């Protein structure tokens, strides 16, 4: 994992921006939409104790978060992903709340970086 104190690792973000060029804005829009949908599904699945779905959703969320440089968000998704194995409801709730809070910070960072997408 890249060490960073920022919500988004700017080096990873900038490299992705360079690679994606004109497709970058669309990629960020897709990340936002997919993440909002995934978090909504996670809230439902954790509430329903559907550990298998939580694991699947978190695995995808972890990958997409790493792609844009949101490593702390990916870490929370990884921690929540363990729910599929340990079925610890209280821990899953805590990790979910931390993941939601981290996404709020990621969203705010993205809003500041790309205000036209707000």
UniProtKB/TrEMBL annotation:
Keywords: Phosphoprotein, Two-component regulatory system
Domain HPt: 20-113
Record InterPro entries: HPT_dom_sf, Sig_transdc_His_kin_Hpt_dom
Modified-residue entries (Phosphohistidine), positions: 59
Gene Ontology molecular-function annotations: protein kinase activity
Keyword Phosphoprotein: yes
Record flagged with keyword Ligase: no
Annotated Gene3D superfamilies: HPT domain
GO biological process: phosphorelay signal transduction system
Highest taxon, organism lineage: Bacteria
Protein name: HPt (Histidine-containing phosphotransfer) domain-containing protein
Originating species: Thiothrix eikelboomii
